[in-house]
Every structure is written in structure tokens, then in C-alpha cells.
Design brief:
Blueprint (H helix, E strand, L loop, with lengths): L1 E6 L2 E6 L3 E5 L8 E4 L2 E5 L4 E2 L8 E11 L3 E6 L7 E6 L2 E11 L2
Antiparallel strand pairs: 1-2, 1-5, 3-10, 4-7, 5-6, 7-10, 8-9
Length: about 100
Amino acid sequence: MFAVIKTGGKQYRVVAGDELTIEKLGAEPGETVEFNEVLMLGGDDVTVGVPTVAGASVKAEVVEQTRGPKVVTFHKRRRKHSSKRMRGHRQHLTTVRVTEIVAG
């Protein structure tokens, strides 16, 4: 059985036991989180939500809080005596392990 969940503005296809990296959640490592925005349940028979599947949820355990790779933005203005600007950004991420898919 698999589920399609929505979190952090993105959609993920998950199966029990999957480990995925998502946008930062406010939970400590070892805590259990529940995703209630289940868009689809699949397996032998498919259930598509309108827009979500009523009563369905996905339970996951937080593995770690981490940060993504550095993304560098570089601006250079052409011609002589122009200016340059370099900025960086690292996204805060959470790694979770899916433990259970509840079909409601």
C-alpha cells in the first residue's frame, strides 16, 4: 500500500519504511508526526481524494533535523568598475521515516 501526501507545498509518494527529506517540521528527533493531507491511497484498489481522502493519515518518526547544501546566488554587473554580490542560502530540512499508513 502506498500514499501520496502533501507537506511543505510539495507532494510525496510514500510506502511504510520509506525515509524522506522534507521541509522543516517543528519536532525533535524521535518524536512521531502525523500527516493528515493524504491526496491518494493506492494498492489493490485506488482511492483518490477530493481534495483529500477522508480519515486517512500517514504516521512517521522524525530521524533528524538537518540543513541542505549551500545554494549560491552571484550577481555581476557588466562593464568596467561594476559591482559584484554573492549570497548563500541553506534550507532547513527534516528527515522522517514512514512507520504506518492509516486508511481511515
